[in-house]
Amino acid sequence: MTDGNEFTAPPPAPSGAPSEDQKTLALITHLSGIVLGFIVPLIIWLINKDQADKGFINDQAKEALNFQITLLFVYVVGIVLSIILIGALINMAAWVACVVLSIIAGIKAQKGEAYRYPFAIRLIK
To answer: Taking a C-beta distance cutoff of 8 angstroms, is the pair 102, 111 a contact?
Structure first.
């Protein structure tokens, strides 16, 4: 049972070495967020969520999806706050964080390491 707090620590990454295909798909999943937002991580997660042998890609797709949903919330807040001119700064900072953290996550995933974004609302568990 959960306490309703979305900011709790994520579950540990699945154990076992992922295959090269899973590493590559995880890389693509993380990097696609830079251009396409949450669309690709959502599709990858929906395709692989019921396959026990795809634990690594399932974990990384959920992580990327949660991060992209968090960024979507930040972008909406930035748009609302653009009337007082701080919104543009918020959106720029969110975009830079998206690019930098997605590249770091992609590199880690390609090495077979499960990556956890430093800030993400964990809606998909």
So the answer is: no
Which residue in 3, 51, 31, 12 sits closest to 110, CA to CA?
31
Integer angstrom CA distances of residue 27 from 42, 86, 114: 14, 33, 11
What is the length of the chain? 125
C-beta of residue 115 within 8 angstroms of C-beta of residue 31: no
Percent of the chain having pLDDT more than 70?
A: 87
What is the pTM for the complete model shown? 0.81
Classify each residue of 11-29 as buried b or exposed e, where b means 16 or more C-beta atoms within 10 Å of its C-beta.
eebeeeebeeebbebbbbb
Specify the residue for token string 């964080």.
97
Where are the domains positioned within the chain? Answer: 20-110
Report the alpha-carbon distance of residue 113 to residue 119 in Å, rounded: 18
